[in-house]
Design brief:
Strand order of the largest sheet: 2-1-3-4-5-6
Largest sheet: 6 strands, parallel
Structural class: alpha/beta
Shape: globular
Distance between the termini: 68 Å
CATH superfamily of the largest domain: tm_1862 like domain
Number of strands: 21
CATH topology of the largest domain: pyruvate-formate lyase- activating enzyme
CATH class of the largest domain: Alpha Beta
Number of helices: 13
Length: 445
């Protein structure tokens, strides 16, 4: 990136996050950092700094960033300072600014605590690129947390050591690192003090988290969950995303005996063929995965199961795709994410032979998503008539309407109630994406 003209330091900012919940968390932390510098949050149309917090998992996600850069650069009223953060920034570094000359600074997901200095460099016309992965934790340099609503994300683990052959995460997020016990507990307390009723623990492989508690004992994620469950004011705990190889006995047991741990598990299997799983370097097979699901359901029969699926991995045959459909039918999902395989530069799968034609992937994905959609609708329909607590998170689209989440992470629309309340409702009707909840006394017999 060459030198640019100097400009005043921006006084307002807007963060747009793409992709996973960890990007949402990082986006919130970047916003808190810029607010601590005296900047105010504004809309994308008026902010003096627009920060795109990017995802690099799929090619379309990366290309959308460049499309957004072009649109922002042509914004009415003049071009703002444009920052590219996140995994595209990490993977492509200074190439981002060479490809999109409107970009003023580039910062990776392990370096965003350096944003104030990078913004100053960009304003002074200097090159502003930081994709280092320092040994020192970025979390130590960030301002204190504050809750932005009744539900909050809390990163406990970053990076990945699994090296699935299709995935860029080990290269863009680095090796697996667990945040210290005390730092997590302190952040959770700050979020609860700020009004959070629910905390979702985040990590690329969140159930690989390990740490030493205040008594010097080594703990896994289940130990952390148990101590958080004792905190007054916290009503709900969730965690995502998990790897089957890190689904320890203690964590499975926690689903049965920690009341505040919600009955929802996102546990990606990715494919239903053992040969494809081996080619993906997933380090588990179908039988071991299904046993895990059985064990979790044995301790929590009402648990909602979510997962990830990739169709069209190099070499996947019609028969192997049918195996994936068979696994989907065997599990029965409350929800799931499914994608066509997307080659990512630098990953082993990108150079594998027998890349599946796009039209074949399209047809397979349509069939898979149709089946997953049927299962999601069936799961939602099975909750009709149940009475449960709904955590009200925000206003709905209609006057007086509120939107919240059921214990099974379903969106529930109700009339009335205050944001942050745990409203006891009975599920009156269900669609594929949301439910209608009403006060129990109003439900017809």
């Amino acid at each position: 990136m060459g030198r640019m003209m100097t400009r005043p330091l921006p006084k307002s900012f807007h963060v747009k996050s793409f992709g996973c919940q960890m990007n949402v968390y990082d986006g919130a932390r970047m916003a808190e950092l810029m607010e601590a510098q005296g900047m105010r949050e504004a809309s994308a149309d008026t902010a003096e700094l627009v920060l795109l917090n990017t995802c690099h998992i799929r090619e379309k996600a990366a290309e959308k960033v460049y499309s957004d850069i072009g649109r922002i650069a042509r914004r009415d009223g003049g071009k703002p300072m444009i920052a590219v953060a996140g995994c595209v920034a990490q993977a492509e570094g200074a190439e981002v600014a060479r490809r999109a000359r409107a970009v003023d600074l580039v910062v990776g997901p392990q370096a965003y605590h350096n944003l104030p200095a990078l913004i100053a460099d960009a304003a002074a016309g200097r090159i502003a690129v930081d994709t280092d992965m320092p040994a020192a934790s970025k979390f130590d340099a960030l301002p204190g947390r504050r809750a932005r609503g009744p539900s909050a994300f809390l990163t406990v683990q970053e990076g990945c050591d699994k090296f699935c052959t299709y995935c860029v995460v080990p290269y863009t997020r680095g090796a697996e690192v667990s945040r210290p016990w005390g730092a997590i507990v302190d952040e959770a307390k700050a979020l609860i003090d700020g009004g959070a009723r629910e905390v979702t623990l985040l990590g690329q492989n969140v159930n690989a988290w390990t740490g030493t508690d205040a008594q010097g004992r080594v703990q896994g994620l289940d130990g952390l969950i148990r101590v958080l469950a004792e905190m007054p004011g916290l009503a709900r705990i969730r965690y995502t995303t998990s790897h089957p190889n890190d689904m320890a006995d203690g964590l499975i047991a926690a689903h049965g005996d920690v009341e505040k741990l919600m009955p929802f598990l996102h546990l990606p299997v990715q494919a239903g063929s053992d040969r494809i799983l081996k080619a993906m370097n997933r380090q588990h097979d179908v039988a071991s995965y299904l046993r895990l699901i059985e064990r979790v359901r044995a301790v929590r029969p009402d648990i909602a199961i979510s997962g990830d699926y990739i169709v069209g991995f190099p070499g996947e045959t019609d028969a192997e795709f049918e195996e994936t459909l068979a696994v989907v039918r065997a599990i029965g999902h409350a929800q799931a994410f499914s994608f066509k395989y997307s080659p990512r530069a630098g990953t082993p799968a990108a150079t594998m032979e027998d890349q599946v034609p796009a039209e074949v992937m399209d047809e397979r994905l349509q069939r898979l998503q149709a089946l997953l959609g049927e299962q999601q609708l069936a799961f939602n329909a099975n909750t009709v008539g149940r009475t449960c607590d709904v955590l009200i998170e925000r206003d709905g689209k209609l006057p007086g309407q509120r939107l919240g989440k059921s214990p099974w992470l379903q969106s529930v629309l109700i009339d009335g109630g205050a944001i942050g309340d745990l409203a006891t409702v009975t599920i009156a009707s269900a669609g594929p994406q949301s439910l209608i909840g009403v006060a129990p006394a109003r439900v017809a017999a």
